[in-house]
């Protein structure tokens, strides 16, 4: 189904929706982009080629928790597939600002942020070192210490 959305030209329209002022529209667009990107590196690359990363990165410090949940989910679904895609997410300069979201009041914002970090560092020692250099170790250790249950797993 995601391929059908891509074939119908839906991805650029979803990226346009990220730029609209309506928060609910941004949430749904980010969620749809996340669902498209999760299936394969090719679908994730289509989302990236439409310019989604830059628009998603601008929303990481938004005050709306549900939007941040979807933003971190979409970024992690993009980053999980390959070193190149992970590097593109990192190049959006979301770190160290994203580390602040590990202390968010919403558990799922924290979990999705930790998942994004996990998806980036798993690829190469260089990407892991970049997270370390940006202050990620302390942020993740604090996250693991302050959470309980399944929310804690991506940090571990």
From TrEMBL:
Pfam families found in the cross-reference section: Arm
Superkingdom, taxonomy of origin: Eukaryota
Organism expressing this protein natively: Adineta ricciae (Rotifer)
GO cellular component terms attached to this protein's record: microtubule cytoskeleton
InterPro entries: ARM-like, ARM-type_fold, Armadillo
GO biological process: cilium movement
Protein name per its UniProtKB record: Sperm-associated antigen 6
Signal sequence, renumbered to the chain: none
Lineage start: Eukaryota, Metazoa, Spiralia, Gnathifera, Rotifera
């Amino acid at each position: 189904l995601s391929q059908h959305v891509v074939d119908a030209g839906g991805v650029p329209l979803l990226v346009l929706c990220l730029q609209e002022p309506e928060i609910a529209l941004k949430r749904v667009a980010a969620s749809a982009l996340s669902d498209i990107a999760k299936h394969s590196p090719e679908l994730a690359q289509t989302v990236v080629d439409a310019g989604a990363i830059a628009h998603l990165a601008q929303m990481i410090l938004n005050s709306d928790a549900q939007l941040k949940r979807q933003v971190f989910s979409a970024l992690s679904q993009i980053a999980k597939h390959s070193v190149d895609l992970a590097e593109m997410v990192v190049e959006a300069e979301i770190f160290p600002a994203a580390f602040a979201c590990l202390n968010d009041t919403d558990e799922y914002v924290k979990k999705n942020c930790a998942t994004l970090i996990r998806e980036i560092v798993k690829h190469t020692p260089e990407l892991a070192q970049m997270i370390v250099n940006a202050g990620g170790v302390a942020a993740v250790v604090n996250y693991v210490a302050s959470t309980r249950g399944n929310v804690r797993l991506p940090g571990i």
